[in-house]
Specification:
about 230 residues, four-stranded antiparallel β-sheet, Sig_transdc_resp-reg_receiver, OmpR/PhoB-type_DNA-bd, phosphoprotein
Length: about 230
């Protein structure tokens, strides 16, 4: 049973969503304000937070930044803001996933289960560390080092890099990444992959114009390989 914290101020959304998620086997707590949600997240340590952006006391994106400063709990943002720029800002602030209102409890449940499957208790927790050049990805410790220096990644960034590191030198398509890393169907969400790849490049000290490890194959996908392997 997963412990979910729903931070949502709209009672007409919050009440039926709590009931539906409980019927699907989750333990659900709820908060109606940003500060109450932050307190509950820190005190109760839920497995996952579902965060509305339009909260009465503080914008949800600001709450997300505050939460990310002190916790790595997975966060799914639930928002009525469906423009691409806003979605990118939400991901940039540290969200692991997002759903656009209106959504069904079944959709949110599927997203929550997909995010939780990628936690350290999953199957990859027993996998050996992957080494590609100076890059070391350790799924047991959920830690990445580059030339011996720890690289701080979000849970989703780690999962993305771990998937690529397991296929060094291979071109991995966005379809595969969305299916295997995000556990969602391909179509309309490939911008999410681009955004996370951009963050990974920045944290690995490179960019798309001067890649070292992450190489975009235009129209196909991305390839991870050691710099020494480049011609």
């Amino acid at each position: 049973m997963a412990r979910l914290l729903l931070i949502e101020d709209d009672l007409t959304i919050r009440t039926p969503l709590i009931r539906a998620l409980r019927e699907r086997g989750h333990a659900v707590a709820a908060a109606s304000t940003a500060m109450a949600g932050l307190r509950d997240a820190l005190e109760d340590r839920p497995d996952l937070v579902v965060l509305d952006l339009g909260l009465p006391d503080l914008d949800g994106r600001e709450l997300l930044r505050m939460l990310r400063a002190v916790s790595s709990v997975p966060v799914i943002v639930a928002t009525a803001r469906d423009d691409e720029a806003e979605i990118v800002r939400v991901l940039d602030a540290g969200a692991d996933d997002y759903v656009v209102k209106p959504f069904t409890a079944a959709q949110l449940d599927a997203r929550a289960r997909a995010v939780l499957r990628r936690g350290p208790s999953g199957a990859d927790a027993q996998d050996p560390a992957l080494v590609v050049g100076g890059l070391r990805v350790d799924p047991r410790a959920r830690q990445v080092t580059l030339d011996g220096v720890v690289v701080e990644l979000t849970p989703r960034e780690f999962d993305l890099l771990h998937h690529l590191a397991g296929r060094p030198g291979q071109v991995v398509t966005k379809r595969e990444l969305l299916t295997e890393v995000w556990q969602i169907p391909y179509g309309g969400a490939d911008k999410t992959v681009d955004v996370h790849l951009s963050w990974l490049r920045r944290k690995l000290g490179e960019n798309a114009q001067q890649p070292r490890y992450l190489h975009t194959v235009r129209g196909v996908g991305v390839r991870l390989e050691a710099p020494a392997a480049q011609p």
